Amino acid sequence: MMTGSNVAKLVEEPGGDLVWSLGDRIVGRVTRNGALWGVSWSLSTRTERRLTDLFGSSHAACLAAERCWPAEAYCGWVESPQGGFFRQLGRSRIYVRQAVPGWYAVRDRKLLGRAGNAIWFTTASDAMAAVEMDYYTPFDADPFRDVPERYTWLTIAGRRAA
């Protein structure tokens, strides 16, 4: 199951700080510094990386941590402060979010789909597994071959302001 021990969970500590933990390992932290909040990550090289900016709320600091998350801290799925999960795969940041119909995966204004249709997953684990299946499955580049069971990224039509 994808949402088990291999997902960095966002947890509030007794002192009010927020940490992303993976088992007993802390991979990211949002700490109070007086009235402001700071962000740091524990890198796999046993060093720490910090954002130089301080934020007015823990929520703003968590969002900054999500936007700037370094792959060296943890390259797997991370629980998002906005709900759902995110992960860096290649050059893309991929999000798994929940809507009323179910869970979906999105990256770079594209929605994960199959056979030209968007897919709604029943669980976040299913959506995360589909993202990884799409990323790690070798692709047959034959343009004349129809592969309806393969996941593809569908462009989301944007709205233009009048």
Number of helices: 2
The H-and-E topology, N to C, reads as EEEEEHEEEEEEHE
3D shape: elongated
Biggest sheet features: 12 strands, mixed
Structure classification: mainly beta
- The percentage helix is 10-25%
| Poorly predicted segments | none
How many beta-strand segments? 12
Radius of gyration: 18 Å
Q: How would you state the average pLDDT, rounded?
A: 85
Number of domains: 2
Percentage of β-strand residues: 35-45%
| End-to-end C-alpha gap | 46 Å
List strands and helices in order, with pairings.
Blueprint: E1 7-12, E2 18-22, E3 25-33, E4 36-42, E5 48-50, H1 58-67, E6 77-79, E7 85-89, E8 92-99, E9 102-107, E10 110-114, E11 117-118, H2 124-136, E12 151-155
Parallel strand pairs: 1-6
Antiparallel strand pairs: 1-2, 2-3, 3-4, 4-5, 6-7, 7-8, 8-9, 9-10, 10-11, 10-12
Structure description:
Strands 1, 2, 3, 4, 5, 6, 7, 8, 9, 10, 11 and 12 form a 12-stranded mixed sheet that branches. This protein has helices spanning 58-67, 124-136, and strands spanning 7-12, 18-22, 25-33, 36-42, 48-50, 77-79, 85-89, 92-99, 102-107, 110-114, 117-118, 151-155. It is elongated, with a radius of gyration of 18 Å. It starts with 6 loop residues before the first strand and ends in a 7-residue tail after the last strand. The mean pLDDT is 85. The longest helix is centred in the C-terminal third of the chain and has 13 residues, at 124-136. It contains 2 helices and 12 strands. The chain has 2 domains: 1-78; 84-162, no CATH class. The protein is mainly beta.
